[in-house]
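FW: tagging you since you asked about this chain on Friday. Here's the raw sequence from the shared folder, copied in full. Didn't touch anything.
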Amino acid sequence: MGKSSIIRRYLEDTFQESYTATIGVGMNVASFELPEGKVVLSVVDLGGQQSFSALRNRFYQGAHYVIVVYDTTDRETFDAIPKWVESLNQSVCTLGDSIVGALVANKIDIEAERVVTKQEGTQLAGVLSLDYFETSAKTGENISEVFIHAASTSQIKTRSD
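HL: got it, structure written out here
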């Protein structure tokens, strides 16, 4: 999917061709100076394997913004998004609220291998009430925009809590 690659691209401005699955949890911090003040994001990269579901639920609680990523060249990652969002809603939300976050389509740099269209992505994001971004961890396209938007939205939500 590219969760770790997206985080690495944003924080370190690097990209690795080789793939290593996240085992457990990776944690990072990103700071932003916005006109409204400083925002510090705790960026948590959660392993997707079923064996980590209890661990994931602990990290979901208290989240102000989530970024759910799928691979535009892998239909299964896209088809799994509703299940992930349902799990997030059950863990994070109270009394009819829904999560605040973004659906991120990654790997737009390999258009020839794309199997999930932009229209499908925007439609699903709309159904799930998520913002939508298309990115490439490899080229860096739209990566900063995702994190800046997360910081801006998180700050608004935190101030209104």
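FW: Strands lie at 25-34, 37-46, 66-71, 101-106, 131-134.
HL: agreed, and Residues 143-160 form the longest helix (18 residues).
FW: great, closing this out.
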